[in-house]
Automatic annotation (TrEMBL):
Superkingdom of source: Bacteria
Organism of derivation: Candidatus Nitrobium versatile
Pfam family name, one: Entericidin
Classification via InterPro entries: Entericidin (IPR012556)
Protein name: Entericidin A/B family lipoprotein
Record's keyword terms, sorted: Cell membrane, Lipoprotein, Membrane, Palmitate, Signal
GO biological process: response to toxic substance
Similarity field: Belongs to the EcnA/EcnB lipoprotein family.
Amino acid sequence: MKKRIVLAVSLTLFLSLVAGCNTLRGLGKDIEKGGEAIQKATQ
């Protein structure tokens, strides 16, 4: 029972992350933009 709950919660979190970025490619672009923002902030 606990295993199913953990699986359901994990799957929900993963899908919400992927859906927020539309695709895994979009996730990569979001991470890249975040890195660029950090670089600009440190300059």
